[in-house]
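Entry 12.
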Amino acid sequence: MKEIRYVSADEAVRVVRSGDHIHLSSVASVPHILIQALCRRADAGEVEDLHFHHFHTEGPAPYSEPRYEGIFFDQGFFVGPNVRANVNAGYADYLPVHLGESQKLYRSGALRCDVAMVQVSLPDGNGMVSLGTSVDCSIAAIESTKHAIAVVNPNVPFAYGDLVSIDAFEYLVQDDTPLVTKDFAEPTPTEVLIGKNCAELVPDGACIQMGIGALPNALAAQLKDHRDLGVHTEMFADGILRLIRSGVVNGANKKIDRGQVVASFLLGSQDVYSFIDRNPAVAMKDIKYTNDPWIIAQNPLMMAINSATEVDLTGQISADSIGTRIFSGTGGQLDFVKGATMSEGGKSVTAFASRTNKGKNKIVSHLNPGAGVVTPRADAHWIVTEYGAVDLYGKSLQERARLLISIAHPDDREMLEREAFERFGPHFLRVR
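Predicted 3D structure (tokens):
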């Protein structure tokens, strides 16, 4: 290990040149001190045409703002709330990719990485650092970049899994800003019902993947009486932590990484971040590993539980957009859909409320024009709303339509039946 020498954020970002592509570590671990330093260079007229790549980020996102048009251009792999308006206004952009392949963009050279900016833990005695709450595709960026900059922050937990040598970084910057935390609202009565319907599909001994937010937390609450669950996921939050502490999640039935919770990034309370610090029961891994369908499928009874913005009557699942408006991203949905359906006894589940908060139906006869299909109809299996759960696998288009109408909001069913009749013809009336 070479002697550790720290520089200021302003000195570190001097390596950035106009036209560079910059990778940011993401979610709770965005290197804001480096972004602020780049803003100072931009304000001084020193750089232009910088491209930013990252997963969903938390906190201020000046790299997407109109005031930096022509200087910064955000091209994220996933669109979070902090950049959503600017993406849909054209000041920033979305780069569609399955999150499991985001690392391949860098490693294959399909996407340049001139500068990698990440946040890491304090080094251990061997000079290794952890990427803490956000491993994501950052290891690939560090391997592929011309210049790697690390913000060494004592608030970044030293999580076991995939580590990086401190020697991999050209510049080291010190910062002690706390990581972004997120408290999620208590589940609504509708979300509780959806959670119950999903939980009934989860057998004891299953290995689960789900995201973050009120709905996954509602599901986690309904799993409290299950036994011997495992976790292999791209991310988790407080709901999973409660299951671990109660003994429901112990990983005893996993075939690989037995006894370990495997993830690639986190967003939650400080309690979650503290829990993964030097905890051998947690492995934070490269997204190449966590989202590889062949790895996912090795655990039996794999349950992939994801959400949707819309599902049409044939089973096409939209999850990244609402019409032409980009809402989030492809994410790892199809990675886990494929992995779960290849797993012995596994299931793919898409769960969502039958209506939006504004009362618009989410089971529709046709997707909104411009909507992206994240999971094709051929890969759609279990669909769950507050009104029940149906399995589309092995069902024809008309059979699917009948099943989906049965779990739509009751006030929408007559309209959907009429639209299905118009689409499929009179035989639809005889499908049961």
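Annotation: The chain has two domains: 9-174, 189-430. The CA atoms of residues 24 and 117 lie 5 Å apart.
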